[in-house]
Amino acid sequence: MGLTGIPKPETIKANKGAWYVLGNIQIHTSTELKPDHAASRRHICYLVSDFQAFQKHLQAHSVEIIPDQQPIPEHARFFLRDPAGNRIEIA
Question: The whole model's pTM is what?
Fold first, then answer.
């Protein structure tokens, strides 16, 4: 598929899966033994140009912010769930 493997950050290296890059797009794969949609860790990530402003915007609209449980050094991020329960990462 033309994907090049890239190393995962040390803090999450033990998690199953792999990371790939194609141009400026990264794809992070993982597995779940017993998938539970509402509790799933699978997600899509959106990069925003002003992280703090976007977080404040979501909070102002009563969107629940889920703190990062496995911080990656030098990568500010948080999570939220859409109305269907899908997990979304904001970085």
Answer: 0.62
Q: How far is CA 56 from CA 29, 41, 75, in A?
A: 29, 23, 18
Task: Residue 90: count other Cβ atoms within 10 Å of its Cβ.
Answer: 20
- What class, spelled out in words, does domain 43-91 have in CATH? alpha beta
Q: Strands 66-67 and 78-81, how do they pair? A: antiparallel
Across 1-91, where does the E strand assignment appear? Answer: 4-6, 18-22, 25-29, 43-46, 66-67, 78-81, 87-90
| Whether 32 contacts 17, CB under 8 Å | no
pLDDT tens for residues 47-61? 899 999 999 999 999
**CA pair distance 70, 50, nearest whole angstrom:** 21
Extents of the domains making up the chain: 1-31, 43-91
